[in-house]
C-alpha cells in the first residue's frame, strides 16, 4: 500500500510540474532559426503525408507562401505568436480538414475543479457573426440587459472586427467554396478567443444597439447546486436515447425521426453528425417504421452536419437505394506505410496507453496489410469502398435532402452520391465540403519540434464513387433556397423545409393524390 501511495504521489507531482512547464513554455520566445526549422518541418510533413496537397493550390504557389513566411520571421516569437503566422499558410492549402492547432494553456487539477463549478463566460448568451460583425442572437438570462440584435463592437478593448479577420485566416473550406466560412466562424470564434486569452472570469464589452454605444461588464457565474448535482450525477441514458445518440450536455438528440403529417405520408430524419454510435440499430428501426407506414416521401435533413463516420453514411445509403452500390472509391495515400502513422496513442492517458501498447504490433501489421499499390498509387482498404447491397426495408419513394454551408465532409459525400445517382432532390445551399471528395479519414498529428504546435494531417483521400465535376466547389443543390442566415432575430419559419412541403403539395395536386 505504501508503494502504491508513493507511485500516485509521483504521478501527481509529475502532472503538476508538467502543467507548470507547459505554461512557462507558452511565454518563452523561440529563436528565429528554430522557428524557420519548424516552417520547413511543417512543409516536409505535408509533402510526406497529405495525399492531395496541390489539389487547390499549385506547388509553386505553396512554395512561395512557405518561403515568404520564413523571410517574414525576423524576431523571436512565442509559440502562439508563431501559430498566428504559420496557421494562415497551412490554411492556404484550402483543404477544410487541415488546420494547425495552437498550444493551449493548461490547468492544474485544482484549477480544473474550480472551473467546473462555474458557467462558461461567453456561453451565457448566443451570438451570430455576420461578415466582420458580432451580434447577440439570444440572451435568455438577460446578462447585462443586452437586447437581442445588439452588436458587440469590442471585447476587453479589442475590436471584434479585427478578431474576426484574424481568426478567419486560421482555417479554410474545401477549394473555392464560399458557404462554409460563415458557419465555421460562428462555431469557432469564442474557441479561438479562449485559446488565445485563456478562461476568463470576466470581460468588458462595448455594445451598440439602435446607434447607442454602451459598455457592459459580464462576469462568469457559479453553477447552481442543481447544475452541479447534474454534473456529478448525470442522468442515466436509456437504450432508446443511446440509439438516437443523446447528448446529455446539450440535452438534444443527434439523430431524430418523425412523421410530418398525421397520415405518415412524409417521413423526416434529422442527423446532426454521423457519429456511428448505434447507427445501424437506429436506421433499422426507423426504416421499418417508414415501410410499415407506407410513406411516399422522405426528407433527410443534414444541414449543419459537419460529417463523421463513413460507416454510418454507408449504412444510411443502403436504405436509400434499390440497387447494389459502392459509396466511395478506394482511399488514396502517399505510401504503403501511411496508415501506420495514424494516431494510435494520441489522446490516451498514461494507463490506457500502457494497455493499448499490447495491440500496437497488430495495429501496424493490419494497416500495412490493408494497403495496396496499383498504377503507381497507394490505396487503403476501407469498408465503404466495397460493394454493398441495399437493405430489405430500403425506402422506395421520393427523397429530398436538405443541405447548407455547414454540411461538410461525410455529409457532402453522401449528398454528392445521391445527387449523381439522381436518387434524391437536393435542396438548400451549396455544401461547405467538396463535391469531389476530401482528405480526412484518419490523421497523423505531427508535433512541431521547437514550437510544439500540433498539425493533424489527413492520411486518406476519400472521394465519392461518382464522375467528378472538377469545379473545386461543394455539392450544389438541385434547388437553391434562401437560408435566412442574415436574420439575427430568431425566426420560426424554416424556408428550406417549407419549400419541400410546398413542392410535395404541388406534385400531389398534379398527380391527383391526396396524401395529407
From TrEMBL:
InterPro entries hit by this protein:
ClpP/crotonase-like_dom_sf (IPR029045), Tail-specific_protease (IPR005151)
Q: List the GO cellular component terms.
A: outer membrane-bounded periplasmic space
Q: Which residues form a coiled coil?
A: none
A GO biological process held by the record = signal transduction
Give residue ranges for domain Tail specific protease. Answer: 232-482
Q: Which Gene3D superfamilies match?
A: 2-enoyl-CoA Hydratase, Chain A, domain 1
Instruction: Give one GO molecular function term.
Output: endopeptidase activity
Name of the molecule in the record: Peptidase S41
From which organism does this entry originate? Epilithonimonas hispanica
